[in-house]
């Protein structure tokens, strides 16, 4: 038995509903009261001859009892009769569809659907349902080109149906037409975002899959960014972050900033990463940040064991001592930074205050340093200012600042990624 198509079966049942087909003669139909002229004309066409009444009732009963083979035999007998009307042909196709749906014969179901769609006896809404059923049936049969035909036909008249939009992309993808799959899903995602709607995770994964098949690095990175933005997981973050640090042109100067974001999304995965981050923070004159990293490593179970265990305690002692000494000289450090000729010391000292949780003081000092100028890497300072606002809980201001970061050394991406952090 052929596997049933959930889409086709659901569409078929909705299209058929519970209405039974009339078996009264035309003269009896015409006598129904309160009919319009159009309804009377329609009623004249939608009639089965009297001699079909008994066998057709038997067919309906057999279908209800799931005796599909017996029902099919009676349908074949009726089909052999001569001079069938268009409506009787329609009835036979509709009945064959019911039998095919019940037996899971998608080949026969598709053939019946196509005949029904071409008839004059389905309403436009019913034709939509049957087009949907045709697309789903061919998809289940892995006849993706045929499914595309019916999906496009449906979408031409009803372009906003998301299920059919997704089906079209899946058809392209499974037919190895990755270029069209990428084009279609990109348009869908753009439309979602323009409408203020969160793109479905499945769509974003299809974008990533199609782009990967095409070796389109920019599009696959776009997909990862959107997955992190709308459906963040630790795994999506890891894929995105490792792609960034491996990108040509990424500056090693921003490695500490990369580690900060990795720590924020819980993706530091071994003691060597914690050690490197702490050591870079110490070199940057941020001993408290180094202490926080070491403490986090112990808490997560990365320090105090393993082949590097002998290095953990000395690093902890060093970070603790320098942090204690630094805490005693914060005021003096701020005074010296303000007296410097350029704003570099102010931006550095400002971020140091941020590590102590003194956000207002730190933000003010970074902003003053940027205003003073003379910075070799002003975009890096703007990145730190945006992160400072984020850590202070002012996400709107953080986003405003982070959007101003420019360059091609990785700072732009780090700034944008911070706006994805909740």
UniProtKB/TrEMBL annotation:
List the protein's name: Tetratricopeptide repeat protein
Q: Which InterPro entries match?
A: TPR-like_helical_dom_sf
Q: Which UniProt keywords apply?
A: Signal
Taxonomic classification, please?
Bacteria, Pseudomonadati, Pseudomonadota, Betaproteobacteria, Burkholderiales
Recorded superkingdom? Bacteria
Residues spanning the signal sequence: 1-30
């Amino acid at each position: 038995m052929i596997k049933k198509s959930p889409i086709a079966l659901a569409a078929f049942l909705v299209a058929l509903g519970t209405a039974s087909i009339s078996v009264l003669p035309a003269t009896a139909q015409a006598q129904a009261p309160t009919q319009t002229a159009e309804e009377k004309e329609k009623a004249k066409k939608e009639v089965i001859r009297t001699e079909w009444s008994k066998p057709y009732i038997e067919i309906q009963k057999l279908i209800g009892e799931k005796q599909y083979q017996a029902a099919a035999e009676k349908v074949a007998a009726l089909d052999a009769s001569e001079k069938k009307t268009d409506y009787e042909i329609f009835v036979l196709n509709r009945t064959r569809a019911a039998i095919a749906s019940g037996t899971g014969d998608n080949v026969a179901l598709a053939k019946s659907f196509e005949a029904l769609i071409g008839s004059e006896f389905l309403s436009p809404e019913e034709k939509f349902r049957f087009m949907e059923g045709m697309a789903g049936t061919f998809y289940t049969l892995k006849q993706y080109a045929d499914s595309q035909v019916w999906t496009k036909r449906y979408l031409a008249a009803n372009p906003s149906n998301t299920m059919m939009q997704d089906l079209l992309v899946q058809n392209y993808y499974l037919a190895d037409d990755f270029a069209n799959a990428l084009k279609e899903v990109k348009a869908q995602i753009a439309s979602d975002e323009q409408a203020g709607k969160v793109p479905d995770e499945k769509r974003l994964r299809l974008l990533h899959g199609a782009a990967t098949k095409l070796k389109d690095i920019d599009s696959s990175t776009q997909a990862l960014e959107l997955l992190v933005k709308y459906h963040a997981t630790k795994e999506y973050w890891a894929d995105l972050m490792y792609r960034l640090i491996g990108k040509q042109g990424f500056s090693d100067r921003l490695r500490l900033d990369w580690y900060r974001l990795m720590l924020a999304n819980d993706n530091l995965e071994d003691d060597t990463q914690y050690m490197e981050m702490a050591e870079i923070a110490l070199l940057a004159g941020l001993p408290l940040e180094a202490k926080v990293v070491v403490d986090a490593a112990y808490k997560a179970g990365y320090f105090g064991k393993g082949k590097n265990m002998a290095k953990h305690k000395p690093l902890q002692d060093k970070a603790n001592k320098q942090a204690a000494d630094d805490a005693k000289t914060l005021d003096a450090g701020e005074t010296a930074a303000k007296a410097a000729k350029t704003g570099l010391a102010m931006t550095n000292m400002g971020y140091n205050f941020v590590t102590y949780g003194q956000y207002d003081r730190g933000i003010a000092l970074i902003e003053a340093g940027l205003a003073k100028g003379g910075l070799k890497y002003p975009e890096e300072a703007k990145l730190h200012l945006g992160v400072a606002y984020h850590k202070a809980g002012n996400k709107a201001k953080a986003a405003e600042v982070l959007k101003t970061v420019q360059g091609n050394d990785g700072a732009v991406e780090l700034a944008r990624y911070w706006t994805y952090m909740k």
